[in-house]
Amino acid sequence: MPVSPPVRAIEAWLQDLAAAPFEDDAAHTLFILDNDFGELTTVMYWVLGQPGFHKARVLVSQRLYDTNADVLPGRLSLWRSEQDLVEAIHRHRPRLVVLASGYLMPVHGLLSPEALQRILLVAETQGATTITADPFMGVITRPPGQPIEELISIQIPENAPAQLRAAKKLGDDMLRTRLGGAEAVLRDLPHLYPSHTDMSGLEARSHDDRNLSFFNAALRAPAELLEAARMGEPSYWMFLIAQADHQTQCMFMGPSAFARVVADRLEDATRLGRRAILLGPSELLSDVRLLVGENRDVELLPFCAFSRAMALLLAAEYCFYWNLVSHSIIMQLWNGRPIILFDQGHLVRAAPTIRERIIAWYYQGWDPPQIDQTEPLSLERLATALDGYADRREGLMARYGRAPSSEALLNSLLAGRRPAA
Fold first, then answer.
1. pLDDT tens digit sequence for 322-354
2. What is the pLDDT of residues 139-181, one digit of tens each?
3. Domain ranges in the chain?
4. Were 104 and a residue from 34, 35, 188, 356 both cysteine, which residue would form a disulfide, CB within 3.0 to 4.6 Å?
5. Architecture (CATH level 2) of domain 220-400
6. For domain 5-217+403-414, is the CATH number 3.40.50?
7. Is 118 helix (H, G, I), strand (E, B) or coil?
C-alpha cells in the first residue's frame, strides 16, 4: 500500500531531526549498540534534533545496520567484533562512551562479560566516561544475598512437555550466567533511561545514584502533523510485535493458533472500516498472509527503519502492542497518544519485578489497559479500555518533562558531572 501523505510528512519531520552537518573523525560521544531495535530507539530519542550530537558516532551490529544504515546520516557505521570497538575508541577519541545496552551484548552473544570489561578499560585509558542503557530498570542489581534465580525465570505453560521444560532450564541458565556476568561489569556505571526515573513509592528501592534520564522536547510532534494524521482517510490501526514476543505467544498458543488470533484482530479493523498494519517478524507475517488472503486493507510489514516505523505509529488511530516495555511506546506517550496492550510481554513474563518500575518510569504512573486478544475488537470496547486517559493526558505529558533535557544531560556528562534531577 502507498504511504499516506500524513505518514510521509511525519517521516520527513523525523528525518529532518536526524540530519546533521558533516564533522571530522573526532567524536565527543561514541554510541555502541547491541542488535536490539529498542536500544536503537533509546539512542534516537536522545540524539534527534540535538545539535550537540553532531559530533557523535554510532556503531551498530549487523541486524540494525540492515534496516537502519541511513538513520543518522554520516554518523553511523557497522561493528562486528571486539577489535572493531577498540579501534573505534582509539580512532574517535570520545569523551563519552554509551553502551546500548551493555546488559544485552552478552545475552545476544555479541560480547562476553570479559570482553565488555576490556572495552571499559580501553575507554577508561582514553579518558572517556562510560555509561550504559539498562532495559532491566536496575532490578538486575540485587540486594546482598538475593540470588539472581529469584529475578529471572522464563515463563512457560504449566503443562509444558519435557522438551520445553528442558529448553527453559537451558535458557534460564544462559540468561542468569550472562546477565550476572554483565551486571558484575556494569553495576558501578551510570545507567541511562529515556524517561524520568521516579523512585518515589517503589517497594524495592527508594533511591539509585546511578540513574540518568532525559526528555527530548524536540520529539513532541508539531500539532499540525498529528492533526493531519487524525483527519486522514482512511484511518488505520497499527499492530506491533517483536520477535521475542512472537516466540512467547507461539510457546503458549502455538504458531497457527496465534497467527489466527492476529489475523482475526486485523480483520476486525477492516470490518470496522479501518486499514490494519501489522509490523512484525517475517515468520508471523507469512503465517498471517495465508489467513487474510486478498484483503487489500491489511498490510503486513517486516521490521523497517526507525523513521518509517515511528511515523506509522504516530499517525495511527489506535496502536496495539504485545509488550509493556516496547521502546516505541515512549514517544507515543510523550505526544499524548495512549496505547493498548494484548500482553505484558516477554520481559515482564521473565522478570515480573520489573513491572513496577516500568509503570513508574516509562508510563509515569499510568497503567495502560490490557485487553483479551482472543476477543473481537469494537469501537465501544476500545473506548472503554481508554476511558479516563483523556483526563490524565496533559498531566502525564508534563511528568515526562521532569527529566533533564537531552542537551543538559549530554553537557553534564561531557563536563564530568551529573545533571541536576
1. 999 999 999 999 999 999 999 999 999 988 889
2. 888 766 677 777 778 888 888 888 888 888 888 888 888 989 9
3. 5-217+403-414, 220-400
4. 34
5. 3-Layer(aba) Sandwich (3.40)
6. yes
7. helix
